[in-house]
Amino acid sequence: MCPTYSVPRFLLIWHLQKPSRASQFDEMSLTVSMQVRRLFCLCCLFMLGVCLTSLYMRKETHFFNAKTKPKSVPVTVVTMNDLDNMLNYKARSAVQTQTDWKAPIMWEGIWEPLDYDRIHTDNKTSVALTVFAVGRYLEAYLETFLVSAEKHFMIGLPVMYYVFTERPDDVPQIDLAPHRYLRVIRVERHSRWQDISMMRMKTISELIDSEMKYLFSHVFCFDVDQRFMGRFGSEALGESVALLHAHYYKLPKNRFTYDRNPKSKAYMEIGDYYYHAAIFGGSWESVKAIADACLASIIEDKQNDVEALWHDESHLNKYFWIHKPSKLLSPEYCWDMSLNRKDIFVTRLIWAPKDYNRLRVPKEETAANKSTAHL
């Protein structure tokens, strides 16, 4: 028989209660698993908090912006009405850049061409140009006028040249850019400048009524004996546009050659400026009003056997004295190269040489050309 030994009771209890290595390993794995789960839960809670905070801030920011900022930002920052308000009137201290009634006088350096071009392009501005080429003025000046206009007049905008002449077949053919057109209209030839002035205003008014107002937003009226030399662009457009005469813009008012005859409808004692009839323009409504008013005054003078000193130019000065133009063009826009002025930085349009020996061949034209000697 094998000997038997008695195991102390406390050792037996300790042995029975002592965990095995396997159970210790399982217990450690369980602990690690619980810690991983706890960490995962904390990460999820953190991310959820970030998302909720982001949504809340976005909502608050949108609410704040809705109350303090416009919902949409306009694409066009500068509007048509803002253009003239943005002019740098102080850029040309040696010349007057604004009238007493706050109309701008357009001089080189006070305006930004890109702003004007962009706004007029966005607003689909279109321009009709009228020019009369009668008698020997057709062959002497018209081709030079039109070719130079194609290089410098309202580039980038749709333009229609309306040429009025008694000899449509003699109008030269010129190359036109896209969206630029030429229309020739036959008119009756008159021998006297009073009749030519009346015809000019009457023809312009009637054509605006019948055609131009349906096709063009602006109208410019030019004398033909001129040549474009530089940009004559959208900055010149306005509701009603008058031109400062190159010979008078530096002179005192008492030397302006207004019509001093009280019997004439063009009679003036005082005025603001002396305007040159070689160029005027504006919206079609304004140009029609100018043409109608001048025509009515010319007809009344004719009935009273009166002739204004400088014909339609005298009547135009009277009109612009009563109805102030909204924009004035400086003499840069119609310059006489025989003058020497330091304040003329650019020449946009120049007077063509007047070859009166060639132009005055017909007797009836002699008196007419004398009346334009001051131009």
UniProtKB/TrEMBL annotation:
Its main location: membrane. Mn(2+) binds at residues 223, 225. The keyword Membrane applies. It is found in: Membrane. It comes from the Eukaryota. UDP-N-acetyl-alpha-D-galactosamine binds at residues 132-134, 137, 223-225. SUPFAM superfamilies: Nucleotide-diphospho-sugar transferases. This is Alpha 1,3-galactosyltransferase 2. It comes from Neogobius melanostomus.
